[in-house]
Design a protein that fits this description.
alpha+beta, single chain, about 30% helix, 5-stranded mixed β-sheet
Length: about 140
């Protein structure tokens, strides 16, 4: 499999919900222990991107957005078995080029370890005025 043979799709019917839940709840530092119910609800209310090699899903990302002024890129992963082939780069490029995500006033994300990926392939930068942003603490 080469990175050029992959398919990145926003077709929800192709998403392997069991795979996405397992990966998020067991492999991703930001979502360890996330319930299947929460994964399903988050997918239902987001613009989702699946990464596929034929019928096999090997990556995922979702964007929480109003499709007008705000977008939050989250839950991005490429299966460990497929990393190092440029799939994350292609996924980020495809997301930021998506027609419904053009002209956003705010397009944000949070990452612990992939700043250069998002900077180079998505055009993301550190917040220009972080003192303006606030967050409500996580409940539970």
């Amino acid at each position: 499999m080469t990175a050029s043979m992959i398919d990145i799709s926003t077709d929800r019917s192709r998403l392997d919900i069991a795979y996405i839940h397992r990966y998020l709840s067991e492999e991703c530092y930001w979502s360890i222990g996330r319930s299947r119910e929460i994964v399903e609800k988050s997918i239902a209310n987001s613009l989702c991107f699946g990464v596929y090699d034929g019928d096999r899903q090997m990556g995922f990302a979702r964007v929480v957005t109003d499709c007008a002024t705000f977008a939050w890129l989250c839950d991005v992963f490429i299966d460990a078995a497929y990393r190092g082939q440029g799939l994350g780069k292609q996924l980020v490029e495809r997301i930021v080029a998506h027609p419904e995500l053009q002209g956003m006033r705010n397009f944000i994300l949070a990452t612990r370890d992939a700043h250069e990926l998002y900077r180079q392939y998505g055009g993301f930068e550190a917040l220009a005025a972080p003192e303006r942003w606030m967050a409500r603490p996580r409940v539970g």
